[in-house]
Automatic annotation (TrEMBL):
Gene3D superfamilies: P-loop containing nucleotide triphosphate hydrolases. Keywords: ATP-binding, Nucleotide-binding. This is ATP-binding protein. InterPro entries: P-loop_NTPase. One of its GO terms (molecular function) is ATP binding.
Length: 75
């Protein structure tokens, strides 16, 4: 969740990369991070993890929009 925001360390970076699985829980963590990051002017990009096909990638695109940087397959 949002533990990395508790220390304030995230404000020392221009951008935060969030690794998220294409699930409702993964997207909910993204939304929580997005809210915190926006409050402090920190850019956020998402790396999709365990993406198993076009449906997973489309789900992430629909949920995180332009914040999606790349999707990585499940190994």
């Amino acid at each position: 969740g949002s533990d990395s925001f508790a220390s304030g360390m995230f404000t020392r970076f221009d951008m935060t990369f969030l690794v998220a699985e294409p699930t409702r829980k993964g997207v909910s963590v993204y939304r929580q991070y997005k809210e915190y990051a926006r409050d402090f002017g920190v850019a956020l990009k998402v790396v999709g993890n365990k993406v198993q096909g076009p449906d997973d990638l489309e789900f992430l695109r629909a949920e995180v929009g332009d914040d999606l940087l790349i999707g990585i397959g499940h190994s």
